[in-house]
TrEMBL record:
Residues of the PTHB1 GAE domain: 185-275
PANTHER family xrefs: PARATHYROID HORMONE-RESPONSIVE B1 GENE, PROTEIN PTHB1
Ranges for domain PTHB1 N-terminal: 2-107
PTHB1 platform domain ranges (all copies): 278-307
Pfam families: PHTB1_N, PTHB1_GAE, PTHB1_pf
GO cellular component assignments: BBSome; membrane
Highest taxon of source: Eukaryota
One example of a Gene Ontology biological process annotation: cilium assembly
Protein name: Bardet-Biedl syndrome 9
Amino acid sequence: ASSVFVLGERNFFCLKDNGQIRFMKKLDCSPSCFLPYCSVSEGTINTLIGNHNNMLHIYQDVTLKWATQLPHIPVAVRVGCVHDLKGVIVTLSDDGHLQCSYLGTDPSLFQAPKVESRVESRELHYDELDIELKELQKIIKDVNKSQGIWPMTEREDDLKVSAMVSPNFDSVSQATDVAVGTDLVPSVTVKVTLQNRLALQKAKLSVYVQPPLVLTCDQFTFEFMAPEMNRTVSFSVYLKGSYTPPELEGNAVVSYSRPSDRNPDGIPRVIQCKFRLPLKLICLPGQPSKTASHKLTIDTNKSPVSLL
């Protein structure tokens, strides 16, 4: 039978298709998103409910089955399959960050049997068990090293990304189609360098800045990068608009694939690097007024913004 789910500010309703209430659950916190999905138990429904306290609750009808803390407030939640791993919970934060989470397996209900007599306990061959345990540990270690679904990061320097912002404006401004009054809008050059230790495939560099800042080029693609190779790309940033951006920080994100023994096509990975643009890119210098009618003095215990 079909059901209709309604999420309120403090209540969660499940209605039958004829309008009758199947069940109702009062919530302690203000919810931010929810997702009903099929339960393994016949006749019941599982529901994921996120709230503004960075929590994610899993209900079976009205019974709380699991609760977990998230690093953000989820505004959307889905259950999917990632690299053949079923049951991955995908949440989206209010600022656009996507996170994949996994709750693990069901708790073990196994209880060790009681030893009825001391004679039976003495018959255990501990030396043989110790040898078998070491063999199993070696097998697990070998599998973790060679698996291609969730690889262990042996070294974090497979790819290094660095960004350098030029301290001076471009001699010839790249903002040729923008002007503020009679003054030409300046531009500044940013260089991003990629240093890879291993062979990488399908590397894509994407650069982001806050509007109305504009990039002369925001996408760079490298089909193949040989080991120990450095790649440097340059682009210019300038202001295209009559308002100021919320921040001067830019972000260079590189997505690439690293081949493995079990996955020749490559394991997808992402690395990012942040850079900060100079304040003079969006502000024009002005002469201080010594005969002003009003003066405002600001004291702060923080380092002031660099005006260079």
